[in-house]
Write a structure and sequence with these properties.
Elements: E1 11-13, E2 16-18, H1 44-49, H2 56-71, H3 73-76, E3 92-93, E4 103-105, E5 111-112, H4 115-126
Antiparallel strand pairs: 1-2, 3-4, 4-5
Length: 128
């Protein structure tokens, strides 16, 4: 990939669109975290590193949702109990018919046997 190609665009290899980067590591190994502040939104660098392993349309959609989650008051206050019901479910890919039995965290692409564990992984990535 050349230096003048923006990081948010997929590579085109032999006519096939390929994602541009790996997923985040598991929350235990993650090296960048979102930052909580009362008034500003300093999480652009964190958001831009998320979902690089997904296709561009999916990645852009999830980054937009992540931006709104990180701007929400419940996240800023680190008060998950005040979050809207199922707000983080969008970051979990459910099992596919004939494609496996695991729920997958969209941040790290990690498989989980149940949705509660997958949402727990998502919570680990955004530190809530």
């Amino acid at each position: 990939m050349s230096d003048n190609v923006p990081l948010f665009e997929p590579q085109h290899v032999f006519g096939i669109v390929r994602p541009i980067g790996p997923p985040l590591p598991s929350p235990l190994l993650q090296d960048i975290w979102p930052i909580r502040t009362a008034t500003v939104y300093p999480n652009g660098s964190f958001i831009s590193r998320c979902f690089k392993h997904l296709f561009i349309e999916d990645a852009q959609r999830l980054r937009t949702i992540l931006r709104s989650v990180l701007a929400s008051q419940w996240w800023r206050d680190n008060s998950y109990r005040d979050a809207p019901i199922a707000v983080l479910d969008v970051f979990v890919r459910p099992p596919t018919i004939g494609g496996g039995d695991d729920y997958v965290c969209q941040f790290c692409n990690g498989p989980h046997t149940n949705v509660v564990a997958a949402v727990g992984c998502v919570r680990g990535h955004i530190n809530v």
